[in-house]
Each structure stands twice: as structure tokens, then as C-alpha cells.
Amino acid sequence: MASAEIYRYLSIESKKYGLDPEGYLVDMNDWSPAVAEALATEEGIALTSEHWEILEVLRDFYARYEMAPAMRPLVKSVGQILGPEKGRSIYLMRLFPGSPAKVAARLAGLPKPTHCL
């Protein structure tokens, strides 16, 4: 589903993945754990099991609703699935500094959440 124009490429081994101007995958079907790792490296994030839990919640949310969640729905979904201690903005900000909804969606291979600047 190549909907955006390719701005630059992410190279992993001998394969190239198109990214839009904000660094999101142009084709969501290109996503893989290796792509997530490479995107995380660009963000200065070393993915841990805590990060992968959130990425899985995001990908499940997208599969269900066909959109990446903004911060409030992300916090709510994480809380429902992983428990109240993880369903907190401060927890997500520790894992994905800056804008957790945007950064996590990017690493999960999803489009930029709506209502995120």
C-alpha cells in the first residue's frame, strides 16, 4: 500500500525500504522486526521487551481499527492489554521519548497517528 511519496530510503542488508519525509514507512507491508530495529536506532532507542509489547499493542490496534492511535487511545489500549502500570503516559514517554504515539507508530511500521502534530 504505497500511498506516500518516497523521500529517502532505509537500507538493511541489501534491501531498501522507502520512507516518507517524516520517516514513516511508505509501504506498511515492508515492516519487519529488523526494520523496527533500524528505525529505533535512528531514534536513539535500543528496543527491549517493554518496547516490543507496546509495538505489538499498536499493530493490533491498527489491525482492528485501521488507524494508528493518538496518545490518549494508545494509553487506554496499553492499560487495557498490559495493565494500569504500563497504561500511563509517563511510562510510554520513558520508552518512546518526545511524542510516544508518533515514535512508537513509526517503529511499528504504521502511518502517523491522526491528530498528532
Automatic annotation (TrEMBL):
Location of the protein in the cell: Cytoplasm
- Tell me where on the tree of life, at the top rank, the source sits: Bacteria
Question: Which keywords does the record carry?
Answer: Cytoplasm, Transferase
Transmembrane segments annotated in the record for this chain:
none
Q: Which InterPro entries match?
A: DsrC-like_C (IPR042072), DsrC-like_dom_sf (IPR025526), DsrC-like_N (IPR043163), DsrC/TusE (IPR007453)
Sorted alphabetically, the Gene Ontology cellular component annotations on this record are: cytoplasm
Q: Which residues form the signal peptide?
A: none
| First-level EC class | transferase
Q: What is its EC number?
A: 2.8.1.-
Listed GO biological process terms: tRNA wobble position uridine thiolation
Q: Name one GO molecular function term.
A: transferase activity
- Catalytic residues in the record: C116
Fetch the SUPFAM superfamilies from UniProt: DsrC, the gamma subunit of dissimilatory sulfite reductase
Looking up PANTHER family in the UniProt record yields: SULFURTRANSFERASE TUSE
Q: What does this protein do?
A: Part of a sulfur-relay system.
State the family it belongs to.
Answer: Belongs to the dsrC/tusE family.
Q: What is this protein called in UniProt?
A: Sulfurtransferase
Lineage, uppermost ranks: Bacteria, Pseudomonadati, Pseudomonadota, Gammaproteobacteria, Oceanospirillales
